[in-house]
Amino acid sequence: MTVRRIVPNLTVADPVADAPFWTGLLGLETPMDMGWVVNHRAADAVQVQLISRDATAPEDSRVSVEVEDVDAVHAQAVAAGYEIVHPLTDEPWGVRRFFVRTPQGVVVNVLAHR
């Protein structure tokens, strides 16, 4: 398995309202703004996402991990007996993802871009 990037997901009331902090003060760019989730980055590997409430999942994730083969990671998670919080899904914004809960209860969004 190859991890391409790991991005913290910060829960906020209004992701757009914090844009001047991340883009103005810290100089990040905003490659993705869907209202409920806004991604700010300095490079592909240096990113932060602000999320008000996930649009399709029953719970919010605390971190997003982009992998090379999301289907293989999903199969490994199921085989290991981890709780799948959100099923493997092709989302309308171009990612295939699932949510899995760690043994300590952290919800992780595992994804690959299509």
Detailed description of the structure:
There is one protein chain. The protein has 114 residues and is α+β, with helices and mostly antiparallel strands. The protein has one domain (3-113): 2,3-Dihydroxybiphenyl 1,2-Dioxygenase, domain 1 (Roll). 16% of the residues lie in helices and 46% in strands. It has 2 helices and 8 strands; from the N terminus they run βαββββαβββ. An 8-stranded mixed beta sheet has the order 2-3-4-1-5-8-7-6, covered by helices on one side. β3 and β4 form a beta hairpin. The two termini are 17 Å apart. The model has no long low-confidence stretch (mean pLDDT 93).
Radius of gyration: 14 Å
The biggest beta sheet is recorded as: 8 strands, mixed
Total individual domains:
1
Please write the CATH class name.
Alpha Beta
Q: Ends: how far apart?
A: 17 Å
Helices, strands, pairings?
Blueprint: E1 3-11, H1 19-25, E2 29-33, E3 37-43, E4 46-51, E5 63-67, H2 70-80, E6 84-90, E7 95-101, E8 107-113
Parallel strand pairs: 1-4, 5-8
Antiparallel strand pairs: 1-5, 2-3, 3-4, 6-7, 7-8
Short description:
It comes from Actinomycetospora lemnae. It contains 2 helices and 8 strands, in the order E-H-E-E-E-E-H-E-E-E.
Characteristic terms for this protein:
2,3-Dihydroxybiphenyl 1,2-Dioxygenase, domain 1
